Amino acid sequence: NLLKNALDAMDGSGQILIQVQEQAEQYWIDVNDSGKGIEASALNKVFQPGFTTKKRGWGLGLTLSKRIIEQYHKGKLSVYRSEPGKGTTFRIVLPK
Description:
Strand content: 25-35%
Radius of gyration: 13 Å
Helix content: 10-25%
Number of domains: 1
Strand order of the largest sheet: 1-2-4-3
CATH architecture: 2-Layer Sandwich
Number of helices: 2
CATH class: Alpha Beta
Shape: globular
Largest sheet: 4 strands, antiparallel
Order of helices and strands: HEEHEE
Low-confidence stretches: none
Distance between the termini: 23 Å
Number of strands: 4
């Protein structure tokens, strides 16, 4: 879902960068796109069921992704950083 959202945010051109870092007790997976970015007023809503900025969609993808990562993998999913017009980075943190 993160990759599909990144592709959608770039409107056909741009760059997606996936970085994986091993920390002492966890892994960090960053998914960064050079797309539209997320407005500050929407940052606290992106994981809410039904929230979407797309013309078509149910607004469930990020909600379900977060639930799966947190409940089944005991990890975390968050917006690490976002800047309108420049892109967004989502961070997944998973325990070792």
